[in-house]
Amino acid sequence: HLTTALGHLHKNGLIHRDIKPSNIIYVNGVPKLADIGLVTEVKTEAKPSTYVGTAGYIPPEGPGTVSGDIYSLGVLLYEACMGRDREQFPDLPTSVMEGAVKPGLLAFNEIILKTCESDPSRRYQSTEEIQKDLIRLQASLQSARTD
Fold it and tell me: What is the DSSP letter of 99?
């Protein structure tokens, strides 16, 4: 749901600039992006944007781009799924290090790592790319359960 919402913004030349847990709300159990006051047009040389965001979710190159939103989404996914604070990225939970790994967790972590690449050119270039990998992972996990 979040990749779809963020993709919709990006397709319309907009960016969020502050994706974090407190800016996600749930409506009938469906996550939605909140705090739309920070939504603005994608930064360009001709149209710079102000530097806003929350420490730990801001990409190394700074906010204001589609790639920056993608990075912030990755940090959000890391916190939500690994149960760790953003300041601990990319450390895995102790249970993973001790071998108590749920199926697919390490593959999911690979998606998070690509989403949060420090080099924007090595990151996912769109939310659709992230969504495709998430759907592939979900399908492989469902297939493994039925085998």
Answer: T
